[in-house]
Structures are given as structure tokens and as C-alpha cells.
């Protein structure tokens, strides 16, 4: 089992007028642990995942798998990715068995009988009928396809699995089943896992650690329950407060005028702290906090609790814990 | 310093930068076209002069002509001559008539242009309303019979190439009915058959495209929004659907206009129309390469110009296009 | 291509079974048969010179007359089939091959060379085929060989472009990325994933290309550049016939007809296959059979303040197999100023219900209801024209996808102003001012400037605000919001829901909020309707949600919803199985197959939505009584089979 480590990874697209989708991100997925990555759309979380598997260009920094740079690894790496959309991630013209077989390491299974047995084993592992190996993906539901996608990822015998929004295309009733499956697989196979979602509740359910991403940067990372009960970065607090819940009011924690600001344009990231145009405790509210505009809080973040990229973290101020979300893990 | 400022200005104004990019592409295409036309002559197997003058021509004459045409110079010298010639409007001399190519083209181009422009106007005027009307009539699977009739008629019309339409029209209206002249270029009535021959096929194609585009636009979410505003149907179609259908229509319209330029070649030959098309065919058969080269250049520039205009129009029509380009 | 792909041959067979397909295949068979047989049978007669019958019109001996040497036109046309078709096919094969090579080159060559090929192709594609063919004819020389090569080379660029575009669209899809991540090599990627997925469109286009080549060849021969005497193809015959058109029009027309028919044969085969292979859906061709009658639902008590009354609403769509009914007898009431949520999973019919009550379902969909009234006006019987003013000002809609719900070619302000111009008779300028005011009221910063911007300059959240603002142009009494926040981030979602809530209190506007998220609905609404398989299965106050819903589905849905305090030690609750397809709803309760409380009665009798208390209706034979929802958990390893 090996750990996955992002070492100051940046991903830049385009030339002069390009866009830095991921900016100097450092993050470690320890062996056998699940790290949840949350953030809004456009925060760069999916790009980070794609960079790890070589689908996005790493323009600076390194991605290390078990200490070795992934660029130096052979083509079939022990690092697999499950995609968001189960409808486009399977070739419509290949039976699910063929798709899974294709992902198996070369020479791992002798002969076609061996490969067939492995396909059956993998399908069983994801709770699908092994007899359906010859089915085309068109005949499966979204949830079933996502299981096939999981089986294909597992066929590559990964040490590390990255799941990119794997439940966001699914209905609630199916989502639970897929999450249960992911968790049991992770535990049984002792996988290291980077679990990406925009949904905090989903991430919280699976993760040992949680990292929060905003506009291409990680703004807070720490043990899951701690991040949720004692968030250091103001953005994390906003995410927590905004998560819809059947037993909280829409108007809990009113934000005042800043509630209606627009998300920043990734082509022109704000100076200093990238969150400052939206931050309710930032320079727009407290005029004396000019440091948020002028200085990048990423510097010195390592010293702060949860490596929070904020000049005025919650623990610097009066510690206020969020009352809910604190059940045992 | 000033250059830097200027380029910064261009970068900031999407319109200027779009115009700059598009114009650059046009110039490069022109150069490629000119070079290809130059290469064409070089690629002709054997000696073009010998081919043009015939096997019986005396060697001295051939050599003299070669000398005059500069064919004995090294390739890059010829290329330089050729490009310089183009800049000064010197396209060489026709081997068959001895007239300057530029003059021949000048004589023949207006005939072709009139034909193409008229036919294009007819196509647009006919096809857009027809396409819109049939889209509205058959939207959401209504009136299957009308749809079937429309599709089969247009498919059939579009499948007949313009020179066959021309032959059919001649047989019917000129030979059988005697309403219009068969050939040549007399009064306005002489235009009717050639223009019709050129326009019928493209009009069928374009009306089909307009209909399909309209139908696909009508399936868009914003049409539902317009209906939710309870706008009268006329406004929904004309104000919301049509402008969005036009972008794709225009793209195809451009292709079709260039296709029509090519169509004139055949139609002119059917009607013995004194234009570029009949001239290029004669000159190919007579192996009058300088003339062929000149006419190929003219057609090519025409095509490139049409594309340029279409791109600019598209950019004007669609507020997102400049952003998409970058 | 989300739908299933059957056995590969079956689609081609299906193509042959359509009228278009059958017709085209007959035509093509005829052409091929003639190409093979005609020269064998009639070679001599096509060449027989008859000096007594020169340039004659049609007669008994020469059905289509004779040419200038007295040869029979009909036989010449028939015999010419072979040469015409062979040359066209030959040119197509060469052209497609060259095109594919050109198309594949950029991915094999070094970058710079690849880009050069691409730009040459781009320029060449702009040129019409005939001009290219003429150009190549100059290089390759006049004659049959030259013409074949000329037409082939003229076809190549557009094929190269087609292959490139198709391949690019396949390569952009996730399954190719997935294969790359799995370590699949480039060659295998191309052979197993890219080629099979672009093969069919390529074949279709090659077939159509053959038709085009046939016509082009006829054109070249007609110009005298193609086939040279004494050989002849249709173009050559046409050329000869045109000279004598006054003597014998048939001599010019016959080869023309032959060209068109043969060209059509290729074209139609291509089109027929494209129609089956492609995404072009042919909707059902079934007669106006009567729509299945909906069952009766218990009539509800409507107070005086009922704004929207829906009784036994049904929406049906024709399918080849009969009617499919995604909304099956829905009844509910929305009172003035009330916020009602509609919850359900995909396919439950919730969005369609919203469209149906706002009269936005278009043919071929059929909407019926025992009663459908908005502000006292019956919506199904009042003519559209009379409804327009009422609905235009009093009923506002907010749709799911803010990215596609605005017209991309019109400025936001104008799209709002339109409403007032149309329904309130405001002049252009006044209407625009009102639009700016409305944008301001939905808290869009710098509303004046933003009103002059196009939709693509707005973020998703801002567009959705503008959409609400558009609804506020009139004096809406009801806003129907269909998944208004699904495409947005949570922080933006909360802003929007707050905006909706505020709008509601300020204008005493009722809200019908359609959402898959039970949490969103319970935060925003007073009451919620839970939909399953086209029915409302429960209608309860959101305040009662904690106390315990009565319907097993509502309970399951609630239990399956992840919250920030879900117990991490336990596996998640799942609902086994999946909802029935709308055209295969079982008799009895639609939820029976997944319901832990199902009995035999449930399998045969469909439960009716009935009141259990004044503000609580349930459609279930065995409504659950206990306060705390029972959590039916499954073993982790089972994970919930579907
Ligand atoms: S650094 Fe300033 S602006 Fe950024 S999150 Fe902290 S307080 Fe807010
Ligand atoms: S009617 Fe029967 S099957 Fe349906 S929900 Fe109630 S108990 Fe379950």
C-alpha cells in the first residue's frame, strides 16, 4: 500500500491568457486512508485528480506515488480514477467484461479462462451478477454502470484510488448503495483513496481527512471531524452553513450583504487571499484587514491549525465550534 | 515600445484581436493558394509548352516560348517572378490567344459573378422562409405527411446536380416550350434558366438545413423560457429561434456560395455562357496553363473571400464567438 | 449514445426495413446488377453503328433514339452503367483512403508537421470539390485516369476533416480517458475505442461520398475532361446528347436520369443508415388512440384561497408500443402565498407535473385533468390567446439549467423587458427600465450595466437570479421553480433559496419548488408532495417530516438522504431495487417491489391518495404509524442490489 502525494502541483492551461486551474497544491493521501476533497465547481478539484493520472498537464511540482514520481512509472500504474459520469465513462461498444479485462495488468491472468474468472470475481466484488459480463453498458442503470466503472478501476490492482464525484450523477436511493460499496471495498482492500465531491455530507461520511479547495488552492486540510466541527477557514464555515439539511433553517447565520457576491473569475484570481471578495470577515467587512488583499495567506499556512490559508483563522479569534455535524466517527 | 503598447491594445480588444487573427489567416491562405497555383504548373507531367503547342511544333519555337515564359530559370527565380507578377497584376500571357491573362479574366469575370450572385440571392430569399415555415409546421413530430413531402422533395431536388438541372431546363423550357433562349447572353430572359439551374439544388439543401436548425433550436431550453413568458408564437419563432438558427445556416450558406461558384463552371458550359467557367474548361483542354492558373487563382480568392465574410458575419451575429475563438 | 447498442448488424437490418431503406436498397441493387450485366448482354448493340438511323428521335426500334453515328441511346446508357459506377467507386475508395491517411497523420507526425497537415486540410476543405477536381485534373491530365485521381484527391480533404472531427469527439469522452488511465496503449486505444465509435458515420459518409463522386465524374466527363471517346460513361453521353438536344432531347435526358438515379441510390442508402445509426429519433407513428383513462382520485377540499387546483392530472406521450404515462393522476392544491415542494427521484414525473400545470407540455404530449385551474381560470379549456395575459404576468417559471435557459443572442435586459412590452404594454425604454429595476431587486450588482450584457457574461447563480427577476416583471402570484439550484454550488444555492423565500414574503407569491433534494424542499417549503412513478404518494407539512412521514417511500428517501450528522459507523440506508419504467408501471402499488411493508393487497390494488389528518394525505394501504422512521439497513457487503 502506498501513499499518494501532491508536491506543490500546478496545472496551467492555455498560453498567455491561460488559466491556472490548480495552483501549488500540496496534499498527501496517506496509505490506507481516505482523504476527502471538497470545493465548488471550478475550484480545480477534478483537475487535480486528472493531473494525478496524467490526463491534465502538470506544469509545476510533482505527483508522487509511494515516493516515486508518477511520470517515471510504467503505463499501467497502481493508481486508478473513477469518473463522474457513468454514462460516458464506459465504451458503449464494449461489453462490460471486455472493459474490465482491458484494464487488467498484462500477464496477470493466464489465458482467457483466467481472465474470465477475474472478471467474475471483480463483478462479484461490486455486487453485480458475474453472468452479466457480456452485457453492453447501454443495458445498465446509472448505479450499475458506476459499479462496473469501480470494477474496472479495481482490475488495475491499484494501491491508490481516486473517485471524482462518483455519486453526483446518481439518485439518492442509488447513491447510498454506491457509497456503502466504496467504503467496504476501501476497507477490505486497504486502498488509499482520494474522494472528491462537492457534497460535504458525502465526503464526511467516507473520509478520514478533509481538504477544502477554493479557486485552485487548498485552503484548509485536517482530520475530518475537526475540520467539520472546528473549521479554521471562513470558506469552510460557509460551505458547512450552506449545506442543505432537513433540520436547519435557510436563514441560519445570515451573511448580510456579502451573501450575493459572485464567485471570482479563475482567469483573474484576486490578489492576496483569493477569498477576500467574498469573505464575511475579510477586508470588505473589516476595513483594517488590508493584509488579506496584499498578502497571500498561503505563506505560513503550514504553521496554522488545519494548514488554513487565512490571516485571521478561527482559532486566532474567539473559538466558536459549529454545533452540529459532530457525531462520532 | 510602441509595438508592445499596440499589441497590448489588441489583446485587450477582442474585436481587434479577432480581426487581426482572421486577417492573418486570410493572408496566409492567399499565399498558400498562390503557391499551390504555381506548383500546379510545375507538377504537370512533361513540358507544358510542348504540350500546349503540340507535338508538331518546331523545337526552336518551343525553346523560344520556354525562354519567354522563364521556364528555364531555377525554380525559386520563377517563383519570385510569379509572386512579383501577382502583386503588379501581371498574371502572364495566355498561350492560345496571346492576350494577357488579366485581360481575359477581366472580360469573363463579370458574367460569372452576375450569375453566382443572382443565384445566391434567389437561394436565400427562397430557402430561409420555406425552411422556417416547414420547421414550424412540423415541429415536435406534427404533420408527418407534410414532413415526408418536404423531405422527399428537397432530397430529390438536392440530389440532381446543377448541370443536369440545366439540361432538363433546356429540354423543357428552351426546346419543348421555346420560352427562353438555349444559350448565350442576351437580355434578362437569358438569365432565367442558368440562374434557376444554379439555384434549385442549393435552395433545396438550404431550406432543409434551415428547417433542421430551426427544429433543433426549438428544442432548446430558452425556447421553453420564451414560451413561459407567454410571448406570441410569431415572436418566439422570429425573435428567439431564427437568430440562433441563422449561425449554422450562415456557415452552410458560405459553403454553398462557394459551391455555387463551382457550379457556374458546369452551368456556363451547358448554356455556352461567356464566363470564367467556360473559359477554364477550354483552357484546360487546350493546355493553356497560364490562363488555367490565373482562373484558378481568381476562383480561389473568391472562395477565400466568401469564407472571410462569413466568419466576420458570424462573429457579428453571435456575441459569444469572439470569446470562443480565443 | 446512451441507449443500448444491440448486435452490430441489427442496425443495418433495421435500416433496410424502413421505407426509405427498402427503396434505396432496391435502387442500389438495380444499379449494381446493371453494372455487372449490361455490358455482357448489350455490348454489341451499344456499339452497332447504323448509318441509316443517324440522330433519330425515339422510335419502336430505338426506344430512346440514336446518336450521331446511329447507335442506340438506350443500350449505350445501360452499358455505360459499369464504367460510370466503377470509376465513381474507385475514386471514392482512393479518396477515402487518402482522406483517412491525411486525417490520421497529425496524430502520428511530429507536432509541427501535424499542424501543417491540419492547416492544409483546413484550407482545402473550404474549396468546393469541383474546383479541387478541376485543379487536380490539370495536374493529372485530361482523361479517365486523371479524372479518377482528381475526384479522389478532391474528396480526400473533407474526409480527412470528418475523420478528425469524429475522432476528436470520441477522444474527448470519458471512456477514452478511462482507458488511458487503465494503461491502454495508443494503438489499442485507436483500434478498440476510437475506430469502432467512428466507423459507422465514416461508412455512411463514404456511401454518400460515392454518390457525390458519381455526379462529379459525370460533370467532368460532361465537360470533356473525364472519359474520352471511344469509351463512354454517362457524362460523356450527356455531352454528346446536348449537342443534338433539338433533334433528340431524350439523348441528353436519358443519361441525366441515369446519373440522378444512381446518385440517389448511393445517397439514400447512406441517409437510411444514418437515420438508424445516428441519433435522429423517429417518433412513434401511431394513430390518435385514446389516452388511457386515469384512475379517480379522492377529491380534495379546496379553501377559498386556492390559487392552483390540480385534480387527476395526467401527462401521456405516444410511443411505438402505445402510450407511456409519466404523470398518472396527480392532485394537489397550492394556496395563495404558500410554498409547496415537490420531491422525487429522476423519472418520478415531478418536472413534467410542473410543465403540465403551466401549460408548457407540447405535442405529442397530451395533458388531461379533471380540473386544472389557476387563479380561478381553467387552463385546459380556455383558449391559449386568452390565457396569455394571465399566465404571462401571474405565473413565473424558473428552470433547472441557467446556462441554457436564456437566449444566447439577446441581452439579458431585453429578454426581461420583453415580458412587460408584451403583457403590460410598456414602451421599449420603460420596459427596459423596469427590467433594470427587477434585476436590482433580485440583488444583481451593477444591474444597469449587467442588463446590457449577454447571458454568457453571467455566472450560473446570477443567471438564475435574472430568471427570477424575469418572473417578477409581472406581478406573479405563483413561481414554479423546477430544480432551480441543482446546477449550482451550495453557497450559491442557499443565496437563491433565500431570494425565493424573500420574494415570496414580499409579494405574497406562492411557490411550487420542484427538487430531488428533500432537504432543500424542507428548508424552503411549508408543505411537500412526494412523487413516485408518476403519482403523489404523500402530501405532508414539512414540519411533520421530523415527526415521521407515513408512506414507506418517503421514509426510505428520508433515511437514504445523507446529512452532516449521519452516523459514520453505520452503513448507509439504501432503497433496494429501482423505480419502474414509466411505460411498465405494475398493477397495484408502484412501490410494492421495493417496499418492506408490502402485502398481497399492494400487488393488485393501487392505493389512492387519502387524507389521514387534515393536512396530511398518503397513498398507501399500510401507512406507517410509529413516529421514528424505521431504518431498514442492509448488510455492508450486500450494498444494495439494483
Ligand atoms: S485571509 Fe482574510 S479574506 Fe482570506 S479568508 Fe482569511 S480573513 Fe478572509
Ligand atoms: S401500498 Fe403497500 S407496497 Fe405500496 S407503499 Fe404502501 S405498503 Fe408499500
CATH superfamily of the largest domain in chain A: P-loop containing nucleotide triphosphate hydrolases
Mean pLDDT of chain C: 83
Estimate percent helicity of chain C: 40-55%
CATH third-tier fold name of the largest domain in chain A: Rossmann fold
Q: What ions, cofactors and ligands are bound? A: iron/sulfur cluster
Strands across the major sheet of chain A, in which order? Answer: 6-7-8-3-9-10
Keywords (chain A): ATP-binding, Nucleotide-binding, Transport
Family (chain A): Belongs to the ABC transporter superfamily.
Protein name (chain A): ABC transporter ATP-binding protein
Organism (chain A): Solihabitans fulvus
Characterise this structure.
Chain A has 329 residues and is α/β, with parallel strands linked by helices. Chain A has helices at 45-52, 96-102, 111-125, 142-155, 172-189, 200-206, 224-229, 234-242, 291-294, and strands spanning 4-13, 19-29, 34-38, 60-65, 68-69, 79-82, 160-164, 192-196, 209-214, 217-223. By secondary structure, chain B is mainly alpha-helical. Chain B folds into 2 domains: 2-87, no CATH class; 105-318, MetI-like (MetI-like fold), CATH 1.10.3720.10. Helix content of chain B is 80%, strand content 0%. Chain B has helices at residues 2-12, 14-43, 48-53, 59-69, 75-87, 101-138, 144-159, 162-176, 189-218, 221-228, 233-270, 276-285, 289-317, 321-325. The model of chain C is unreliable at 1-8, 278-289 and 629-642 (pLDDT under 50). An 8-stranded mixed beta sheet of chain C has the order 7-8-9-3-10-11-13-12, with helices on both faces. In chain C, strands 1, 2, 4, 5 and 6 form a 5-stranded antiparallel beta sheet that branches. Helix content of chain C is 49%, strand content 12%. The two termini of chain C are 22 Å apart. Chain C contains 20 helices and 13 strands. Classes of the chains: A alpha/beta (329), B mainly alpha (326), C alpha/beta (642). Chains A and C meet through helix 4, helix 5, helix 6 and helix 8 of A and helix 7, helix 8, helix 17, helix 18 and helix 19 of C. Bound molecules: iron/sulfur cluster (SF4) (2 copies). One iron/sulfur cluster (SF4) is lined by residues 552, 589, 591-592, 595, 597-598, 602, 607, 620-622 of chain C.
Amino acid at each position: 500500500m502506498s501513499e499518494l502525494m501532491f508536491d506543490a502541483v500546478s496545472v496551467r492551461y492555455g498560453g498567455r491568457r491561460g488559466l491556472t486551474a490548480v495552483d501549488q497544491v500540496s496534499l498527501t493521501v496517506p496509505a490506507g486512508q481516505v482523504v476527502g476533497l471538497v470545493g465548488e465547481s471550478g475550484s480545480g478539484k477534478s483537475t487535480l485528480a486528472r493531473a494525478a493520472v496524467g490526463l491534465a498537464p502538470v506544469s509545476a511540482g510533482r505527483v508522487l506515488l509511494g515516493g516515486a514520481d508518477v511520470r517515471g512509472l510504467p503505463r499501467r500504474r497502481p493508481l486508478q480514477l473513477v469518473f463522474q459520469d457513468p454514462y460516458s465513462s464506459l465504451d458503449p461498444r464494449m461489453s462490460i467484461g471486455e472493459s474490465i479485462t482491458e484494464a487488467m495488468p498484462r500477464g496477470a491472468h493466464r489465458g482467457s479462462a483466467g481472465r474470465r474468472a477475474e472478471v467474475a470475481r471483480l463483478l462479484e466484488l461490486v455486487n453485480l451478477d458475474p453472468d452479466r459480463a457480456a452485457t453492453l453498458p447501454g443495458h445498465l442503470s446509472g448505479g450499475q454502470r458506476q459499479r462496473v466503472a469501480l470494477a474496472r478501476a479495481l482490475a488495475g490492482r491499484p494501491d491508490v484510488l481516486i473517485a471524482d464525484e462518483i455519486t453526483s450523477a446518481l439518485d439518492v436511493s442509488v447513491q447510498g448503495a454506491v457509497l456503502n460499496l466504496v467504503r467496504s471495498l476501501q476497507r477490505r482492500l486497504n486502498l488509499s483513496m482520494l474522494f472528491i465531491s462537492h457534497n460535504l455530507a458525502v465526503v464526511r461520511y467516507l473520509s478520514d481527512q478533509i481538504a477544502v479547495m477554493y479557486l485552485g488552492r487548498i485552503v484548509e486540510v485536517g482530520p475530518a471531524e475537526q475540520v467539520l466541527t472546528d473549521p479554521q477557514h471562513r470558506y469552510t464555515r460557509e460551505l458547512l452553513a450552506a449545506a442543505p439539511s432537513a433540520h436547519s433553517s435557510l436563514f441560519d447565520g445570515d451573511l448580510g450583504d456579502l451573501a450575493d457576491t459572485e464567485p471570482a473569475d479563475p482567469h483573474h484570481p484576486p490578489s492576496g487571499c483569493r477569498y477576500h471578495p467574498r469573505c464575511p470577515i475579510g477586508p470588505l467587512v473589516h476595513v483594517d484587514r488590508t493584509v488579506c488583499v496584499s498578502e497571500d495567506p498561503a505563506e505560513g499556512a503550514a504553521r496554522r491549525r488545519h494548514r488554513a490559508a487565512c490571516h485571521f483563522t478561527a482559532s486566532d479569534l474567539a473559538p466558536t465550534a459549529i454545533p452540529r455535524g459532530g457525531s462520532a466517527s | 515600445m510602441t509595438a508592445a503598447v499596440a499589441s497590448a491594445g489588441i489583446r485587450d480588444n477582442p474585436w481587434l484581436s479577432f480581426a487581426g487573427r482572421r486577417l492573418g489567416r486570410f493572408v496566409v491562405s492567399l499565399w498558400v493558394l498562390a503557391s499551390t497555383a504555381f506548383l500546379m504548373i510545375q507538377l504537370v507531367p512533361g513540358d507544358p509548352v510542348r504540350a500546349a503547342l503540340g507535338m508538331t511544333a518546331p523545337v526552336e519555337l518551343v525553346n523560344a516560348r520556354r525562354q519567354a515564359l522563364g521556364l528555364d530559370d531555377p525554380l525559386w527565380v520563377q517563383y519570385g517572378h510569379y509572386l512579383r507578377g501577382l502583386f503588379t497584376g501581371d498574371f502572364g500571357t495566355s498561350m492560345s490567344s496571346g492576350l494577357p491573362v488579366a485581360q481575359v479574366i477581366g472580360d469573363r469575370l463579370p458574367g460569372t459573378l452576375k450569375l453566382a450572385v443572382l443565384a445566391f440571392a434567389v437561394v436565400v430569399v427562397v430557402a430561409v422562409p420555406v425552411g422556417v415555415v416547414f420547421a414550424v409546421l412540423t415541429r415536435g413530430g406534427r404533420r408527418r405527411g407534410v414532413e415526408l413531402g418536404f423531405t422527399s422533395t428537397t432530397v430529390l431536388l438536392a440530389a440532381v446536380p446543377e448541370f443536369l438541372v440545366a439540361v432538363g431546363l433546356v429540354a423543357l423550357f428552351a426546346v419543348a416550350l421555346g420560352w427562353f433562349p438555349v444559350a448565350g447572353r442576351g437580355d434578362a430572359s437569358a438569365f432565367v434558366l442558368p440562374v434557376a439551374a444554379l439555384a434549385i439544388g442549393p435552395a433545396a439543401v438550404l431550406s432543409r438545413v434551415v428547417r433542421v436548425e430551426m427544429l433543433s433550436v426549438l428544442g432548446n431550453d430558452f425556447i421553453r423560457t420564451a414560451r413561459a413568458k407567454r410571448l406570441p408564437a410569431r415572436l418566439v419563432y422570429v425573435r428567439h429561434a431564427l437568430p440562433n438558427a441563422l449561425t449554422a445556416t450562415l456557415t452552410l450558406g458560405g459553403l454553398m456560395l462557394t459551391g455555387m461558384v463551382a457550379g457556374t463552371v458546369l452551368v456556363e458550359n451547358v448554356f455556352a455562357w461567356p464566363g470564367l467557367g467556360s473559359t477554364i474548361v477550354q483552357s484546360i483542354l487546350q493546355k493553356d496553363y497560364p490562363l488555367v492558373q490565373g482562373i484558378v487563382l481568381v476562383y480561389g480568392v473568391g472562395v477565400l473571400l466568401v469564407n472571410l465574410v462569413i466568419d466576420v458575419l458570424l462573429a457579428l451575429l453571435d456575441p459569444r464567438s469572439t470569446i470562443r475563438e480565443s | 449514445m446512451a441507449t443500448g447498442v444491440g448486435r452490430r448488424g441489427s442496425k443495418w437490418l433495421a435500416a433496410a426495413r424502413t421505407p426509405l431503406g427498402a427503396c434505396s436498397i432496391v435502387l442500389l441493387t438495380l444499379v449494381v446488377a446493371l453494372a455487372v450485366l449490361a455490358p455482357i448482354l448489350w455490348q454489341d448493340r451499344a456499339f452497332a453503328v447504323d448509318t441509316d438511323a443517324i440522330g433519330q428521335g425515339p422510335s419502336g426500334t430505338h426506344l430512346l433514339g440514336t446518336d450521331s453515328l446511329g447507335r442506340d441511346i438506350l443500350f449505350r446508357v445501360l452499358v455505360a452503367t459499369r464504367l460510370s459506377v466503377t470509376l465513381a467507386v474507385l475514386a471514392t475508395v482512393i479518396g477515402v483512403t487518402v482522406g483517412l491517411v491525411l486525417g490520421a497523420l497529425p496524430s502520428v507526425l511530429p507536432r509541427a508537421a501535424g499542424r501543417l497537415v491540419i492547416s492544409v486540410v483546413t484550407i482545402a476543405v473550404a474549396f468546393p470539390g469541383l474546383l479541387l477536381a478541376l485543379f487536380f485534373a490539370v495536374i493529372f491530365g485530361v482523361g479517365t485516369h486523371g479524372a479518377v485521381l482528381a475526384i479522389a484527391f478532391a474528396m480526400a480533404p473533407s474526409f480527412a476533416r470528418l475523420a478528425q472531427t469524429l475522432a476528436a469527439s470520441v477522444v474527448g469522452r470519458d471512456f477514452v480517458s478511462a482507458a488511458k488511465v487503465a494503461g491502454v496503449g495508443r494503438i489499442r486505444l485507436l483500434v478498440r475505442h476510437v475506430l469502432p465509435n467512428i466507423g459507422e458515420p465514416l461508412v455512411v459518409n463514404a456511401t454518400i461520398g460515392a454518390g457525390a463522386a458519381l455526379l462529379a465524374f459525370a460533370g467532368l466527363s460532361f465537360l470533356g475532361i473525364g472519359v474520352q471517346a471511344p469509351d463512354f460513361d454517362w457524362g460523356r453521353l450527356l455531352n454528346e446528347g446536348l449537342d443534338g438536344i433539338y433533334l433528340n432531347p431524350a439523348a441528353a435526358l436519358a443519361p441525366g436520369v441515369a446519373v440522378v438515379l444512381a446518385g440517389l441510390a448511393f445517397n439514400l442508402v447512406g441517409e437510411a443508415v444514418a437515420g438508424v445509426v445516428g441519433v435522429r429519433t423517429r417518433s412513434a407513428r401511431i394513430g390518435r388512440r385514446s389516452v388511457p383513462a386515469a384512475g379517480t382520485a379522492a377529491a380534495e377540499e379546496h379553501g377559498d384561497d386556492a390559487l392552483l387546483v390540480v385534480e387527476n392530472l395526467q401527462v401521456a406521450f405516444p410511443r411505438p408500443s402505445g402510450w407511456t404515462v409519466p404523470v398518472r393522476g396527480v392532485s394537489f392544491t397550492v394556496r395563495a402565498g404558500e410554498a409547496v415542494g415537490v420531491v422525487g427521484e429522476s423519472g418520478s414525473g415531478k418536472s413534467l407535473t410542473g410543465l403540465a400545470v403551466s401549460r408548457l407540455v407540447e405535442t405529442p404530449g397530451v395533458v388531461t385533468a379533471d380540473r386544472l385551474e389557476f387563479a380561478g381560470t381553467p387552463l385546459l379549456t380556455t383558449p391559449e390567446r386568452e390565457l396569455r395575459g394571465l399566465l404571462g404576468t401571474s405565473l413565473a417559471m424558473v428552470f433547472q439549467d441557467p446556462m441554457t435557459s436564456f437566449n444566447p443572442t439577446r441581452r439579458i435586459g431585453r429578454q426581461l423587458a420583453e415580458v412587460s412590452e408584451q403583457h403590460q404594454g410598456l414602451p421599449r425604454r420603460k420596459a427596459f427600465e423596469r427590467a433594470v429595476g427587477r434585476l436590482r431587486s433580485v440583488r444583481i450588482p451593477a444591474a444597469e450595466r449587467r442588463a446590457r450584457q449577454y447571458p454568457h457574461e453571467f455566472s450560473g447563480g446570477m443567471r438564475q437570479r435574472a430568471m427570477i427577476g424575469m418572473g417578477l416583471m409581472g406581478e406573479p402570484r405563483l413561481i414554479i421553480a423546477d430544480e432551480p439550484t441543482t446546477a449550482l454550488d451550495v453557497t450559491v444555492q442557499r443565496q437563491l433559496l433565500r431570494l425565493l423565500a424573500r420574494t415570496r414574503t414580499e409579494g405574497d407569491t406562492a411557490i411550487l419548488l420542484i427538487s430531488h433534494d428533500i432537504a432543500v424542499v424542507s428548508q424552503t417549503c411549508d408543505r411537500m408532495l412526494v412523487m413516485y412513478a408518476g403519482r403523489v404518494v404523500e402530501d405532508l407539512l414539512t414540519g411533520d417530516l421530523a415527526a415521521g412521514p407515513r408512506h414507506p417511500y418517503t421514509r426510505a428517501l428520508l433515511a437514504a438522504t445523507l446529512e452532516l450528522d449521519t452516523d459514520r459507523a453505520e452503513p448507509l440506508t439504501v432503497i433496494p431495487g429501482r423505480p419502474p419504467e414509466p411505460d411498465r408501471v405494475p398493477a397495484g402499488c408502484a412501490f410494492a417491489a421495493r417496499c418492506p411493508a408490502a402485502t398481497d393487497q399492494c400487488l393488485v390494488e393501487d392505493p389512492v391518495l387519502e387524507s389521514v389528518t387534515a393536512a396530511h394525505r398518503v397513498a398507501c394501504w399500510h401507512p406507517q404509524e410509529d413516529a421514528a422512521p424505521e431504518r431498514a439497513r442492509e448488510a455492508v457487503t450486500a450494498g444494495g442490489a439494483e
